[in-house]
Amino acid sequence: MYLKSLELHGFKSFPDKTTLEFGKGLTAIVGPNGSGKSNIGDAVRWVLGEQSSKMLRGGKMEDVIFGGTALRKSVSFATVTLNISNEDRSLGIDSDTVSVMRRLWRNGESEYLINGNQVRLKDVVELFMDTGLGRDGYYIIGQGRVADIVGSKSNERREIFEEAAGISKFRYKKEESERRLASAEDNILRLKDILSELEGRVEPLRIQSEKAKKYLVLAGERRDIEIAVWMYRLDEIKKSSNELENSLLVSNGEYELLTNEIEEYEAQAEELTLKRRQCASAAEDYRRRITALTEENATAAADIAVYKNNIRHYTEQVSEVNEQKNRLFEAESETAGRISLKKEEIARIEKDKLEVSEEVSGLEAELIRLNDESDRFSQELNGITSKLNLLYVRRSELRFSEESAQIAIRDAEDAAVKAKPLIEETRRRLAQTSEEIRRVRDGIADIQKTVEEHGNKLSGYNMLYSKKSAHLKEATEEYNNAGLNIRSLNSRRQMLEELENSMEGFSGSVKSVIAAGRSGRLRGVRGTVAGIITVDQKYSLAIETALGGGLQNIVVSDEDCAKAGIRFLKETNGGRATFLPLTSVKGNTLYEKGLDMAEGYVALASELVEADEEYTGIINSLLGRIVVAENIDLATSIAKKYGYKFRIITLDGQVINAGGSFTGGSASRTAGVLSRKNEIAQIIYKVTRLESKNAILKERLSSISAETEKLGFDIEAEKDIISNAEADKIRFEGEAKRLELVDEQLADRLTELSKAENESAEKIAKAREDSQGCLAELESIGAQISSLESKMSEFNLKSGEHKSIREEKSNQISDMRLRLVELEKDLQASKLSLETLLGGIESAKETAAGYDKKISELESEIEAQKLNISEREREVANSKAVIESLNLRIKEELASSLEHEKKENELRQLEKQKTERKEQISAELSRLNERLENLHKDSDAIVSQLWESYNLTVAQACEGAIKLDDISDATKRLNELKSKIRSLGSVNTEAIDEYKEVSERYEFMSGQLGDVTKSKAELEKLIADLTKSMREIFTESFNKINDNFKSIFVELFGGGRAELKLTDPENVLESGIEINVAPPGKVIKNLSLLSGGEQSFVAIAIYFAILKLRPSPFCILDEIEAALDDVNVTRYAQYLRNFTDTTQFILITHRRGTMEEADVLYGVTMQEKGVSKLLKMDVSQVSFTENN
């Protein structure tokens, strides 16, 4: 297996798709600082699943996406693809090449692909586990990793050795198994809790089940007798109903006869009433006709007066029209004279209009001649203007050239002046650079001294840090143990609350009613008895025993709510339940003289529970006559003393029943719902105390952690100082080389300045010659421009005179045209006035004819009015004769009406007598119907009870009803059965099925507990086997790495000794690893006393020792040889050749010795700022320098 190629697109400084192909052996990647060569190593680390943006040298993961430059836009995603040769199938995938891709979008979404198939991060991690390419592997080694292995704590180094030993996969499996084991332990705890709950329910349910079975036997007998009694009563009701129905038939017959007689009298009376009303109506009609005729006579008299008035008015109008006709003849003579004058005026205006038109035509001809002459002057003036414009342009060009020459002279003279101080400045800077080179060399010596001083301080901090870390570990363990207890208690509390919320232990019927109440389907549901009371833990077992099934009784607001709950259970087939209405349940408390002073007496059970005041009646009903005693012996004494008259419960749940029977035995600690509620409260109390304790531990832990962290910061600060000092040293050395380069550049600059001084003198001479030629040509052009400007002034003068004449003629023409318009308006007005006068003559003639017609019409109207008067006088005489006839007929109708009214009164008296008798019969019918209705209600009540109690119709009840010998004996037996059923108390018929269900569940949970316990044992064995294998493999691999390290150290250092050592050999899987080395001729007690180059060489030797034991398919080395001198760089590079048969190396470097040893060379440049480019180079044609 080896790395074939790497593809980057949009990753960090590689916005464009970039591909690196790798062969076996050594591949070097070179480039200047900041060119992006280390981004290649980051890309490999990222595609293999790195999740820390800090490890990728960024602030957040989105920083790996190319963010854009001044010339390029940012991209929306980054993609890296790793193509690995898998011909040996070492990756467990049946493919010659395995392609691993990771893609990240800027919105945070990401994906992993293996050979094009989308996978999880976990799949990528597991693919490379124990290959050396895992999360803690050694396939990428940078300068920081070198410092880590030398400067880290001993227990932090082991991650690299575990990956090398190949136990990462074992550790992963072990951690997975430990998680599964913890899950199994949680399941065992939950199963035990559930079984504990079930144990407490089995025995009470068995008792309730037996009680329910006894109830069902008694209820069955009660059912048979009750149905028979009801059927007997229905039969009696039927006999009484028949008798009442016969009486109703007789009374109804008489009632109907009276009704018919009354209706006949009513009809006759109504007929007489109708006749009487008809007579009155006829008389009224006659009166209305008389009134109408009288009103018509009055109207006729008024009309005659109007007609006479009209005749007078029309006569006056005839006289008025004759006067208007005479006035019209006088006006017609006056209008004829005005028409003659208007015709003379029109002739005069037409003559003036003709004279003005002839004068306008003459002036327009003169104006056309003057315009033609003006156009000729304009053409000559345009020719002169064109010539002048050409001369003006040439004059401007010459002036610009002359000014440019003067500027060139000034610039050249200025350059010559400025060159002298620049030459002096350059000479001064040359001397200053030499001084700076000497100062930098002194600074390098000071830095070396700083590194040694802070190395000693770092060793002291490391020792103190180890002590603080031990204290921190102890405090952390104590804090974690407390947290574990809290989690365990919270887990128990969660389980109990789940049981409480799901109403575990309650029957299905109770659960369904409570659920209906919560959803609003049933109103007035307050909850169960268990839900409304609170009991101290020491009394909970006694109260649970005292209440028994009563804990499941449902408290409701009133009787209607109870009935609604029963109907709900019947409709839903939800079973049976006991309801306790607050309005009907009123219990009393037991009182026996001297009872409270008896030895062992604790209290009445009702006094040991707490509940809202409104529930007092229910509490007293259930617990008010039950005594709680300390133990069974003292309880027995109390029972004997009071003759076993009441029930006694002991604190441990033993019972002495009224009558002398004893009930008892063992009970689970968490047997009931009250114990469950109390346990939840206790857990909350314990958790609160533990959390308070944990808060104190947390403060202590925070204090120790802060101190440890401060030491860590101090250590990092010292490391930073040392690192910065070494960086400063490298920077100072670079600065010295830069200053030497500056010195060479200043010498070249001095030569260039001297050359520029000579060139300036030549430029001054040529510019002066050009300036003189321009001045001569400017003088000639000035004379030509003066001559042409003089001619143009003469033409302008003539053109002005012509313009004045043209304007004068044009104004005259405008005045004449205005005069013509005014004359035309006067002419039109005169013609219109003439037409009006002529029209007036015709109108007068038409008006005179109209006056004659009006006179004729008025005379005809006067004759018509006279005829109307004669007609109306004749109508009045006829109306008076009709009125006299109508008055006689009114008297006849009134006499007939009085006769009809007398007969009607006689009939109404007979009708009244019959109606009184009918009302007596009606009252009798009401009484009979009421008695019959009551019998029907009794019958319906029995039918309803049959259906509600037993879901039977009357027909079904008849079929199955037993025969009763004596109704009184049956009633007596029925009362006995009801008494026995009441003595049973509350009965839970659901307990029969629930007992079966709980028993089966208990058996199932017991089996589950056995399975989980077995699984736990198997996991513990697997963890033990994995631990043993890991210990053996790690010990063997560590010893081999140690042997390799010893030999490689000697080879690299040319002598000396080295050793890797476990800090705790008895606990190899948790032990830290110490590095003991001694280079030739030195005695080293602490690695920090080694020089930077020696520390790097020690770390390199360790990595080589690991590679020798467990070669990584490929390894990226990022400038790990930066701190080595040239000799050791060459030794390091050549030593790499020993591993190229098993490991492929990608070297990110800028050291010549490493580059010379490479088989393939890639160059990374940044021609465009912020964008990295890749160039593959032929090693044989590259000339190497130290800073290539």
Task: Please give a handful of descriptors for the protein shown.
single chain, 1188 residues, alpha/beta, Rossmann fold, Alpha-Beta Plaits, six-stranded antiparallel beta sheet, six-stranded mixed beta sheet, 18 helices, flat
Give a quick summary of the entry.
Keywords: ATP-binding, Coiled coil, Cytoplasm, DNA-binding, Nucleotide-binding. The chain has 18 helices and 24 strands. The protein is of the alpha/beta class.
CATH homologous superfamily (4th level) name of the domain at 1-139 and 1112-1188: P-loop containing nucleotide triphosphate hydrolases
Distance between the ends: 32 Å
Q: What do the pLDDT scores average to? A: 79
Major sheet size, sense and barrel closure: 6 strands, antiparallel
Compute the number of strand runs.
24
> Which second-level CATH architecture of the domain at 1-139 and 1112-1188 applies?
3-Layer(aba) Sandwich
Strand content: 5-15%
* CATH class placement of the domain at 1-139 and 1112-1188: Alpha Beta
- CATH-assigned fold name of the domain at 1-139 and 1112-1188: Rossmann fold
Sheet with the most strands: spatial strand order = 2-1-4-5-6-7
Oligomer designation: single chain
Residue ranges: pLDDT <50 for 5 or more in a row?
none
Instruction: Determine Rg (CA atoms, Å).
Output: 65 Å
How many DSSP helices? 18
Q: Give the % helix.
A: 55-70%
Please tell me what the overall shape is.
flat
- Summing up helix and strand content along with how strands pair, one would put the structural category as alpha/beta
Protein name: Chromosome partition protein Smc
Function: Required for chromosome condensation and partitioning.
Domain SMC hinge: 523-639
Coiled coil: 167-201, 248-380, 687-770, 806-945
